[in-house]
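Today's session is about reading a structure prediction critically. Students often jump straight to the picture, but the first step is always the sequence itself: look for stretches that repeat, for charged clusters, for runs of hydrophobic residues. Only then move on to the predicted structure, which in these notes is written as discrete structure tokens rather than atom positions. Here is the chain we will use throughout the hour.
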Amino acid sequence: MEDREHSCCFTGHRPQKLPWAMNENDPRCLRLKAELRARLEAVYELGYRRFLCGMAIGCDMYFAEAVIALREEHADVILEAVIPFGDQPGRWNQAQRRRYNAFLDRADKVSVLQVDYTPDCMMRRNRYMVDRSSLLLACFNGRAGGTMNTILYAERSGVKTVIIETE
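Below is the predicted structure for this chain, in token form.
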């Protein structure tokens, strides 16, 4: 059952907008992951139990990883993987698809919003998550794009937003 009051969604940049790109061993990436984990623990302490993730490469994967780690400590944590279209990982490399599938296997719920790609499917995914949450965590560096649009939509919708700055 959906519980918006205790649900938190996430938005964040893909690797091409991060200074470390795909290098998750970069100290800046490791700091961001540690901060995200600490924020999730704090959010859990505030009563949030359901976490919605859009499952894109980059910050979404960091979020999914952190939620799964949180669930290892708190069995009542729920991860909902929100898939914008059925073949989201179709153009990703094999390692990215393996990671994605491993997260899907560990998700409590998988919501596929539509079968085929359309130009607005990522925006629809982001709005779906915001519309079902009372809190948005955002890894954001100020650059225009989907993350900024999601933050603006959440603010217009009255959803509390917490920005985690990326370097």
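Discussion point for the tutorial: The longest strand covers residues 7-12.
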